UniProtKB/TrEMBL annotation:
Its EC number is 4.2.3.1. CDD domains: Thr-synth_1 (cd01563). Its cofactor is pyridoxal 5'-phosphate. NCBIfam families: thrC. GO terms for molecular function: L-serine ammonia-lyase activity; threonine deaminase activity; threonine synthase activity. The keyword Lyase applies. It comes from the Bacteria. InterPro entries: Ser/Thr_Dehydratase (IPR050147), Thr_synthase-like (IPR004450), TrpB-like_PALP (IPR001926), TrpB-like_PALP_sf (IPR036052). This is Threonine synthase. Keywords: Lyase, Pyridoxal phosphate. GO terms for biological process: isoleucine biosynthetic process; L-serine catabolic process; L-threonine catabolic process; threonine biosynthetic process. Belongs to the threonine synthase family.
Length: 420
């Protein structure tokens, strides 16, 4: 806990309709504040709410970003008045070409590459930034596999707050550049993401006023992922799709999309229909998929070895909860090889004109595998998440694509090459 935050006076309404923190393991309640571990069992905390009546019309009248869902998030009513990157309200693509190729009746791609730093992480960072400000913290920080680094550095620059970002030293070069350009402090660590995360946890426990978005303000940060569920439902005409395929790194995105659908149903904003949630991992870092296959409740940590670095978390914090969601909803967790990941990137680009990063390739390839193995119903309406832009992971396809032919600058050469 930050001493600065602990002694800071939290204003009324700082966390919107959030009323408490609740332990996901034992259910014990804690007050809202700079707390992220249960004092009873050390389990993870998440935000609990007491919602007023919320209508579709009220939401639809809001801004074209995640703040249209302010009543459903742990943020104050005036959150939009503070400088932020205003993420969200990304497109939901009717993927008819990809659906036809895979034999699906109806498929949508929630394309979060359209966010300010081109990944879904802008959503969770915006929520974490609000908590950081309300708690009086002075340094905005994170351990990251890349996309979060971009989002934290950009949001801090926009908000005028100091950022310190920690990354594995072998991160993809484009992600390093697109973090450093914002002018914050970028620290490369000799180790994998789990090593970086351990260091961040140590710093968060020792340094005053440091908000590590996915460590000591994680309860607020993770709520930002619910907005993916909210947008999907709203963009489908206020209904929940039958099947959703979601990439799994820490697992937080998947569990919060499930929470978002559940909350919409409880509030009467959608019909509380059944849905199945599927998780997607790369084989080189697939501890949750392995636990699912083996029927285990415990996720055994692994050492990551995959091109999908944004998913390369060998000890995923939300792994057990991902298993719970998949099993409860009747879904599954699958993994695919790096070769299949690259094929997935190319398949989505070729059929829908969407260039996904490696995490998106994992999701597309997993979708294909789930269909082939009979785990996903091709007749049911399906949504897949593209969480980031392929320009961040160019190396994954660099040796696969390029000019078909090189010709002289003449019409005769064009004809001889058979390009008519």
């Amino acid at each position: 806990m930050s001493l600065t935050a602990a002694t800071h006076t939290i204003r009324e309404g700082a966390f919107g309709n959030g009323t408490h923190l609740s332990c996901r393991a034992c259910g014990a309640k804690s007050p809202l504040g700079p707390f992220y571990a249960c004092m009873e069992c050390f389990g993870p905390l998440e935000v609990g709410y007491e919602y007023p009546t919320i209508t579709r019309e009220q939401i639809e009248a809001g801004p074209k970003n995640i703040w249209r869902y302010q009543p459903l998030l742990p943020v104050p009513v005036d959150v939009a008045s503070f400088p932020n990157t205003e993420p969200g309200y990304t497109r939901l693509v009717d993927a008819q070409n990809l659906a036809r190729e895979l034999g699906l009746k109806k498929l949508w791609v929630k394309d979060d590459s359209g966010n300010p730093t081109h990944s879904f992480k802008d959503r969770v960072v915006a929520s974490a930034l609000s908590a950081t400000r309300e708690l009086g913290m002075k340094v905005f920080a994170c351990p990251s596999t890349g996309n979060l680094a971009n989002a934290v550095a950009a949001a801090a620059a926009r908000a005028g707050i100091r950022s310190v970002v920690f990354i594995p030293k072998d991160l993809e070069r484009p992600k390093i550049i697109t973090t450093a350009v914002y002018g914050g402090t970028l620290v490369a660590v000799d180790g994998n993401y789990d090593d970086v995360n351990k260091l961040a946890s140590e710093i968060a426990g020792e340094e005053e006023g440091w908000a590590f978005v996915n460590v000591n303000v994680r309860p607020y940060y993770s709520e930002g992922s619910k907005t993916l569920a909210f947008e999907i439902a709203e963009q489908l005409g206020w209904r929940i799709p039958q099947q959703v395929v979601i990439p799994v790194a820490s697992g937080s995105q998947l569990t919060k999309i499930d929470k978002g659908f559940t909350e919409l149903g409880k509030l009467g904003l959608v019909d509380a229909t059944d849905y199945k949630i599927y998780g997607a991992q790369a084989t080189g870092c697939s501890p949750v998929a392995q636990a699912f296959r083996d029927g285990h409740d415990v996720v055994k940590p692994v050492k990551p070895d995959t091109i999908a670095k944004s998913l390369a978390i060998g000890n995923p914090a939300d792994g057990p909860y991902v298993l719970d969601v998949a099993r409860r909803t009747g879904g599954a967790i699958e993994d695919v090889s790096d070769e299949e990941v690259v094929e997935g990137i190319q398949l989505l680009a070729r059929t829908e004109g969407i260039f996904a990063e490696t995490a998106g390739g994992v999701t597309v390839a997993t979708l294909k595998k789930l269909i082939a193995t009979g785990q996903l119903d091709p007749e049911a309406e399906t949504v897949i998440i593209n969480s980031g832009d392929g320009l961040k992971t160019l190396d994954a396809v660099a040796d696969r694509v390029g000019p078909k032919v090189t010709i002289p600058a003449s019409y005769d050469a064009f004809v001889k090459a058979g390009l008519q």
